[in-house]
Amino acid sequence: MKPTAPALSATAFDRIGCELIAEALRSAGGPVVVLVGGSSMVPAIWPGDRIEVSPAGDAPVAEGQVALFSRDGRLFAHRIVRIVGSLAGAAQFITRGDALAACDPPVPRSEVLGYVSAVVRDGRRIPMASQAPSRSARMLSFAIRNSGLVRRLTLGFRARRRRSYRMVSRCPA
Question: Do the Cβ atoms of 116 and 77 come closer than 8 Å?
Answer without folding.
Answer: yes
